[in-house]
């Protein structure tokens, strides 16, 4: 049996390379084989850090008898959802429509024409909890395929038509950009869903709402809404103090299984942590919270310590599972949880008692088998002692068997990390973070950007994969490059962002409606072209592109890019009141649109203290989506960045120019006056 997954760039596919199942990667060859043999396709979709994907693999895909049955009656196709989000999105929509729920592993049966006709997620090896066994599912699908082929074809055709009808909703006509009333209604909707006891929105399981927090902070900055700020602050503090947050090493787990943020699903994703780093950075900028600042820094340090690859980019995830040294078995969360006796052995009785009190480690435990997930429910009274204990525990934990790392590099998620690290480095005066952002951006340019200006979605070990970039790759990478320009002043990043956004306008945009598609017009044809403006774990490509287009237009004065952003944001107005939790990034971009966004040009010699002071004031401003250009006074030649054109010194001194809504204020040489214009929080400490 040929091993078709051995050379895959995806660690997830490589995890299945030695299964007795005769796996095929997604591609025309697999469907041609199904057509030749006259059998259906089993599509199995997951990702390397997915706990239940591992469980189903061990229970079913490593079973030689089941694999023999599967190989005889199906063509089995394995897909990494992080490499092919388009494939995942199309079939997940079908799964959710048919079953009312979704998740991974995703199990879908297709005709050789790629049409789905039976769906599910995880199936156990034996029937339990009302679920059939995986073997029973295979036997049932095989019987239907052999004996009721016309019925299968009818179901598949009906599902395909339903998906096409759903897709047409988003591009049925132009919508107006959201108005202030739309954003107020979104705030009202979020207030209804807000968990007054635990922070966050909705019940268990509870996901970190980074995009929604960004909207709330921007809405507060623009309108002064205390309700918006309170929801952002309480959610940020609850997540930071709970088990979702790694209290020793920094960073956040994927989600909490309970409403109180106590027990996480332990996988740690680059995308979540990049978004949360930026959210906590902006929370500190808006409030001066020492906790928010500490969390932002520890999350940045986590990214550099545990996710940075040798090539300088960032790996996509750490697994939830690791080896439990006591049992010798792989267990979820084994790397992170503690028992009181372990604290005594490491710290001695006195410090162990302090650590148990600080981190809520109890005899009964908060997790499985008497273990506790670390929490920090209150600020330490003796911060030096807390830091010393935390460092000792972190060093000891490093000796445990570590979770596996999915070292695949995803362009979109690296774009999010670049933006977050660049801003954090500038705001928190950590030049190493800016350097890390630049190095990751250099990797994307060297490996992911093709000579014709197109992006490839993934790479591994410095080798690009074959999968074309999707909309979020272009949008989030452009966002990262725009942040790098604002921080470094290197106009090359602005030009590179413009090139990516031109591709968005040419290949991803519906000219008639302004709607955006998740795949390019020349991408592989699926049963429908995926298109979704709502957020998932990351901002939707649609609204991320709108944000990058708006920022680029503010720098360059491009009416074409601003008009495209406004048209794309029309969907936000349509969804703001109905589904605010799922359009958070679109709401945040809409706040920037309503605020201008502010266009800030600081001119002065690079080494002049007054230039640095004005730049610092601009970076600390809370004005939603503000853009910043810093440059030398204009000479005879036109500056590379239009925002810096015609900006002389004022009275021979460095000056700041602030424009919004096509009108400019009187330039100022006073950092305090600039800070007041941009909503800088008075008295916010720059350090703890």
UniProtKB/TrEMBL annotation:
<dbReference type="Pfam" id="PF03190">
    <property type="entry name" value="Thioredox_DsbH"/>
</dbReference>
<dbReference type="InterPro" id="IPR008928">
    <property type="entry name" value="6-hairpin_glycosidase_sf"/>
</dbReference>
<dbReference type="InterPro" id="IPR024705">
    <property type="entry name" value="Ssp411"/>
</dbReference>
<protein>
    <submittedName>
        <fullName>Thioredoxin domain-containing protein</fullName>
    </submittedName>
</protein>
<dbReference type="InterPro" id="IPR036249">
    <property type="entry name" value="Thioredoxin-like_sf"/>
</dbReference>
<dbReference type="GO" id="GO:0005975">
    <property type="term" value="P:carbohydrate metabolic process"/>
</dbReference>
<dbReference type="InterPro" id="IPR004879">
    <property type="entry name" value="Ssp411-like_TRX"/>
</dbReference>
<dbReference type="InterPro" id="IPR012341">
    <property type="entry name" value="6hp_glycosidase-like_sf"/>
</dbReference>
<feature type="domain" description="Spermatogenesis-associated protein 20-like TRX">
    <location>
        <begin position="2"/>
        <end position="162"/>
    </location>
</feature>
């Amino acid at each position: 049996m040929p091993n078709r997954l051995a050379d895959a760039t995806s660690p997830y596919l490589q995890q299945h390379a030695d299964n007795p199942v005769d796996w095929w990667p997604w591609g025309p060859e697999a469907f041609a084989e199904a057509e030749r043999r006259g059998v259906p396709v089993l599509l199995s979709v997951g990702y390397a850090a997915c706990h239940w994907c591992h469980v189903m693999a061990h229970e079913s895909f490593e079973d030689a008898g089941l694999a023999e049955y599967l190989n005889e009656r199906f063509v089995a196709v394995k897909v990494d959802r992080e490499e092919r989000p388009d494939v995942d999105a199309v079939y997940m929509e079908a799964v959710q429509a048919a079953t009312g729920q979704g998740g991974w592993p995703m199990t879908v049966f297709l005709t050789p024409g790629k049409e789905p006709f039976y769906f599910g997620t995880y199936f156990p090896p034996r029937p339990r909890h009302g679920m059939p066994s995986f073997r029973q599912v295979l036997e049932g699908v095989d019987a239907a395929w052999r004996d009721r082929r016309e019925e299968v074809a009818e179901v598949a055709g009906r599902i395909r038509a339903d998906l096409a009808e759903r897709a047409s909703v988003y591009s049925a006509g132009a919508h107006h950009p959201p108005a202030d009333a739309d954003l107020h209604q979104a705030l009202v909707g979020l207030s209804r869903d807000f968990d007054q006891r635990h922070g966050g929105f909705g019940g268990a399981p509870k996901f970190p709402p980074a995009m929604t927090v960004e909207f709330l902070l921007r809405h507060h900055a623009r309108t002064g809404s205390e309700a918006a700020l309170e929801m952002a602050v309480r959610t940020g503090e609850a997540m930071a103090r709970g088990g979702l947050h790694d209290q020793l090493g920094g960073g956040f787990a994927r989600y909490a299984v309970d409403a109180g943020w106590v027990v996480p699903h332990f996988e740690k994703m680059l995308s979540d942590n990049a978004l949360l780093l930026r959210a906590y950075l902006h929370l500190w900028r808006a409030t001066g919270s020492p906790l928010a600042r500490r969390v932002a820094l520890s999350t940045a340090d986590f990214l550099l310590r545990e996710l940075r690859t040798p090539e300088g980019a960032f790996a996509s995830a750490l697994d939830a599972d690791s080896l439990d040294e006591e049992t010798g078995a792989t267990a979820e969360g084994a790397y992170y949880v503690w028992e009181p006796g372990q604290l005594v052995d490491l710290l001695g009785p006195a410090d162990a008692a302090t650590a148990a009190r600080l981190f809520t480690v109890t005899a009964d435990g908060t997790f499985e088998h008497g273990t506790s997930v670390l929490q920090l429910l209150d600020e330490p009274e003796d911060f030096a002692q807390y830091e010393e204990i935390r460092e000792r525990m972190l060093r000891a934990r490093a000796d445990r068997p570590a979770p596996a790392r999915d070292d695949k590099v995803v362009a979109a998620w690296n774009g999010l990390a670049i933006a977050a690290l660049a801003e954090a480095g500038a705001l928190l005066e950590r030049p190493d973070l800016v350097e890390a952002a630049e190095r990751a951006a250099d990797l994307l340019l060297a490996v992911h950007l093709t000579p014709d200006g197109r992006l490839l979605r993934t790479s591994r070990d410095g080798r690009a994969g074959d999968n074309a970039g999707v909309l979020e790759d272009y949008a989030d990478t452009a966002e990262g490059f725009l942040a790098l320009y604002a921080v470094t002043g290197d106009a090359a990043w602005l030009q590179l962002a413009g090139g990516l956004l031109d591709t968005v306008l040419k290949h991803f945009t519906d000219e008639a409606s302004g709607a955006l598609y998740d795949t390019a017009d020349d991408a592989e044809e699926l049963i429908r072209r995926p298109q979704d403006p709502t957020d998932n774990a990351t901002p939707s490509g649609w609204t991320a592109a709108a944000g990058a287009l708006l920022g680029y237009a503010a720098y360059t004065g491009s009416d074409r890019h601003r008009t495209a952003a406004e048209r794309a944001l029309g969907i936000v107005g349509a969804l703001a009141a109905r589904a605010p939790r799922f359009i958070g990034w679109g709401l945040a971009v809409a706040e920037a649109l309503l605020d201008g966004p502010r266009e800030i040009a600081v001119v002065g010699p690079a080494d002049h203290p007054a230039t640095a002071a004005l730049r610092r004031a601009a970076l600390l401003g809370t004005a939603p989506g503000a853009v910043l250009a810093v440059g030398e006074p204009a000479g005879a030649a036109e500056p590379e960045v239009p925002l810096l054109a015609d900006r002389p010194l004022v009275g021979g001194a460095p000056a700041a120019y602030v424009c919004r809504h096509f009108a400019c204020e009187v330039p100022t040489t006073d950092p305090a006056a600039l800070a007041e214009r941009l909503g800088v929080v008075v008295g916010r400490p720059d350090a703890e």
